[in-house]
Amino acid sequence: MFKKYRGFAYVLITTSVFIFYIKKAERYIVKNVNVFGTIACHEDHIVQLVKNKKMYLINIAKLKQQICELDFIKNCIIKKEWPDEITIFVEEYVPAFQIKTDNQTVFVDKTGHKINKMYPIKRIIISDNVLTDEIELIIDLLSQYQTFSSKVASIYKTKLYTFNFMFHNSQIIKCNNKLDKCIKRYLTLPKNMQSISNVIDLRHPLRTIFY
Crossing angle of helices 132-143/179-187, nearest 10°? Predict the structure, then answer.
């Protein structure tokens, strides 16, 4: 008799246990949301996606897609920490340059990814229309010289492959297509020489002309 109903009893017990844990899990509501790595994206925009929602109903893949659709978000890692906490690590697109044209302002990161949303932190400005390969050239060169890039206020394209660099102290550096040698040359100048004039012409990489 017992053997006859043993299979049924097993299913009944398993189902009951499953329902018990489902009912118990329903009581777990997200109370704490930890967000790390945000710079431009407002943390509240991420928190509101999960706050006060049931833990067991949160689909990690779907939540990741929703977060990556927010402004400036490149990628994220999400961890559920039972019973009521979620931790989210965010990676943002961080633009290096702000490109101004007649119709719009576009932000570009060091990989060339364009962000059409206004970035809240001041970036190096490139005025006029600049070709993609020219942007990549500037980014690649400046990324090698942190001392140089931290001083640059803006970059002006005057003609094909010719750029003027404006520093935060209103000093101007004029460079031609031998940009790499020009930058290296500038970085090797004695500090006291930089104050001789507001304009430094580095069109020739082997000499410096002040005027």
Answer: 30
